# Entry
Amino acid sequence: MLVEDFISTTRQRLTTIKANASLVDAAKLLSDTHISLLVVCSPGGAMVGVVTKTDIIRQVARPQENALSAAVSVIMTQEVVECHPGDLLADVWSNMKARGFVHIPIVDSESRPLRVVNARDALQALLGAVEDEGGHGDWVPLR
# Structure
């Protein structure tokens, strides 16, 4: 199963923000209980980083003046693990599991964000694919 097969059935999880937006703007977006990752974009729409709720909390917890007036670009993670529509979903899941990620952005060939893979959704899709194949793999139920 490819990521492109998966993204047509997954819930929309992509929320973007411009790199020059304030941390207050980011915090407002992240206050929605269904959003835990913001994809930070350049003026041209390419992904340049990501910001999480934890990033915001770390910034606010620092004892410095004007902590909230900083731009999102100051606290974003710039080296982002991403995937593409043509990637194997099993490979993306393995990468997420190995790194402990809950979300990975899906980007096009020009690094424009398309969606965000959520680990739970990916695992459900992979398990569904196994069930659709009519097999249970090599597992044996415990008695």
In short: Residues 139-143 have pLDDT under 50 and may be disordered.
